[in-house]
Amino acid sequence: GNSVTQMEGPVTLSEEAFLTINCTYTATGYPSLFWYVQYPGEGLQLLLKATKADDKGSNKGFEATYRKETTSFHLEKGSVQVSDSAVYFCALRVISSGSARQLTFGSGTQLTVLP
Amino acid sequence: DTAVSQTPKYLVTQMGNDKSIKCEQNLGHDTMYWYKQDSKKFLKIMFSYNNKELIINETVPNRFSPKSPDKAHLNLHINSLELGDSAVYFCASSQDLQGYGYTFGSGTRLTVV
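Structure tokens for the assembled complex are given below, as produced in the milestone run.
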């Protein structure tokens, strides 16, 4: 089956620190990979995605590279801001005949950035 | 011009009551979902409908019943509410195409007292 393992939180950083949130996956077939962000009191928003090996997704200074050899999709940002405080979810989805087509989520990582 | 809209945003009710949450999407997506998010932020899929047909029905109490009158709407009805039903419920929609993620609604915070 499909599964996503995310680094456990919470993660607390000072402003301008470097961020890495680890994500690894197992999947049958060829997954697309996603990072979603949930700000306090809001729904989930797509942050970035990658649809094939070696693709790099990027948005708002965040980046993640689809690494098939290590089955990973780690989220990075060079300099975090207080406004980045949120819960981050790694997810995968496989669209192929016979597979469950829903998005499979990791458990989420709470990030708090202190001024 | 909200893409996926849920109502109500907040719902406080007593144990034993019956309540409904409505969801509508204007994206033309074929598939809609209900997720439950617990207090630890863990997301659990409950149901999925594709073109009004139920395709995912995870292990949830049969007090929960989804209804999809058309492919733009997926409502969630809950009978005999219990304290453990308190959570945030998210509706989402998607196309069944490689590379597509979901578009989520803003959630309904249900509190059972």
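Chain B has no helices and eleven strands. The longest strand of chain B covers residues 43-50. Further analysis is deferred to the final report.
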